[in-house]
Amino acid sequence: MAGIVKGCGGKNFCGDKPVTRAQAATMIARALELVPRVDTPYFSDDDGNPHEDAINALFAAGVVNGCGWKDGKRLYCPDRAMTRAEMATVLDRAFDLPRSTTDHFVDDNDSAHERAINDIAEAGIVRGCNAAERRYCPNASMRRKN
Questions:
Q1: How many Cβ atoms from other residues are within 10 Å of residue 117's Cβ?
Q2: How far apart are CA 2 and CA 144, in angstroms?
């Protein structure tokens, strides 16, 4: 209803489809009401991607860093599925959430994203993939419905 997430065509939502890193960038940029821009092409692998403006706006705002480097050029990996762990870090940065002192999940202890996962759980943004077992499933792909 807020226009952050749109359908996938043909009046369908496609809730079980994975969210790509590029699509996630557009959703977060919309939520933050960032003005998309391509003043500086920060990533070498998103040229011509319909989400490039949002990706660049998020990078300029310090929300995303990319996925690595190749031949001295920064990569974003726009077509790769966004993991639940990556999304936690993006949300944590985007909304500058307070630090959690609680370890909410048992399956994120080796994740570089653990702090962000705990922060978004503390903020009530996520409950995990199996609340009864305190699991977050950090390596699972984000889906459009969740």
A1: 27
A2: 15
Please say whether the beta carbons of 128 and 1 come within 8 A.
no
Let me know if 68 is exposed, middle or buried by CB neighbors in 10 A (0-12, 13-18, 19+): exposed
Chain Cα centroid distance, residue 107: 19
d(CA 67, CA 33): 24
Distance CA(14)–CA(135), nearest Å, equals: 25
Distance CA 62, CA 74 (A): 15
- pLDDT tens digits, 72-108: 999 999 999 999 999 999 999 999 999 999 999 999 9
CA–CA distances in Å: residue 10 to residues 15, 62, 80: 14, 35, 23
